[in-house]
């Protein structure tokens, strides 16, 4: 069954991989992008089911415009994909906006709340969010060899994602947090993907500690296991670790 999916952070990486699969399958996809030409270049055939909107993921107005169905603006989209983030500067160990995920998720949650409260649109989309391993409050979920890198190099972006997760967990929205192991460049592969599941309030149900996974495979896993199964999502309210 065709879905309407809003994408925030789909101009590259995991988000772009998931967007490609959704567009190719015929779903209506709405992607917010600061520089539309960048995303348009990825889809030279200009598919009719892809709507690219120019805007900022930190603007409630811009985000709200992506959260309603084009064919029926009184209904919210079926699925929201959120994978915005910053690029780590290895020289300074910082990212340009240390609160990019926290502020972005605040805007998304406020936009959903305001659209419903105003009566502009109804519905409860499934919200799928890319987070990271290394931030669980229920114990280690990364290889011991990675601990120095996670605790030093990635300290700032991980602190941002941890706050993001806390805001999502307290929001009352239908959510799944996806925590990939260390991300590598690359397209989809035939690697077997191991899955760990954490209840965000009660702790681990199953651990899957691994080293890496490609961005292409993250997007593929999200599309196949979350988007296509959004109406019967066994991972709703959970944090899911995925790794080779």
UniProtKB/TrEMBL annotation:
Gene3D superfamilies: NAD(P)-binding Rossmann-like Domain (3.40.50.720). Keywords: Signal. It holds the Pfam family NAD_binding_10. Residues 9-226 form the NAD(P)-binding domain. The keyword Signal applies. The keyword Cytoplasm does not apply. Residues 1-17 form the signal peptide. GO terms for molecular function: biliverdin reductase [NAD(P)H] activity; riboflavin reductase (NADPH) activity. Belongs to the avfA family. This is NAD(P)-binding domain-containing protein.
